Amino acid sequence: MKQKYMILKSNDNKHMIIKEFAEIEKDMFSLLCEETYEIKTIRSAIKSGMSKLISTIRTQTFYPSATWAKQIAEGIVNCFNSKSSETVEIFVDDAEALQKKEDAIEIIDDLENGATQIDGLLDDTVDVYDENITPKKINSSINVEENELPDDDNDDDNKV
To answer: E-strand spans in the chain?
Structure first.
């Protein structure tokens, strides 16, 4: 599938817009998604590096593959480096992605910190054991009224 990404700045220079299009027929594209970002957020992400920029532009509705995300991020940097407010267009083809192998995107340090926190949650050892604490006995049963039980003797349901 061929796709096109358009990166443009808003007229007020406070927002950046990314539009994702898919080719439905030869040279005929349909809009799939449009995401708007604050320019100050994008500028901050650019200063932090490509990995941060890619994670910033990815949302629940806009999540390009790693290959396309790198190209989009490069397009964003080009858009911000140019003095004019021109639109940057990126054309991609999934057939190209299948033919070449890309390096993985760097993993952000925050993910590593999260992994150690999860490992701590998975630890099944008990630090404190109190012999005086005993489980409480629950004396309850489910009471069902007789008229709510299904009636197996009623053959009205089996009539044709």
So the answer is: 2-9, 15-25, 28-38, 88-93
Domain range annotation of the chain: 2-110
Q: Please tell me the distance from the alpha carbon of residue 78 to that of residue 72, in angstroms, as a whole number.
A: 10
N-term to C-term CA, the chain: 53
The residue with tokens 């995401």 is 35
What are the structure tokens assigned to 63, written together?
A: 């999540």
pTM (whole model) above 0.70: no
- Report residue 47 as tokens: 């200063």
Tens of pLDDT, residues 55-102: 999 999 999 988 899 999 999 998 888 776 678 899 988 777 666 665
For residue 85, which of 17, 35, 15, 11 has the smallest C-alpha distance?
11
Check if the beta carbon of residue 86 is closer than 8 Å to that of residue 18: no
Residue type, 147: N
Side chain identity at 96, as an amino acid letter? E
CA distance 43 to 47: 6
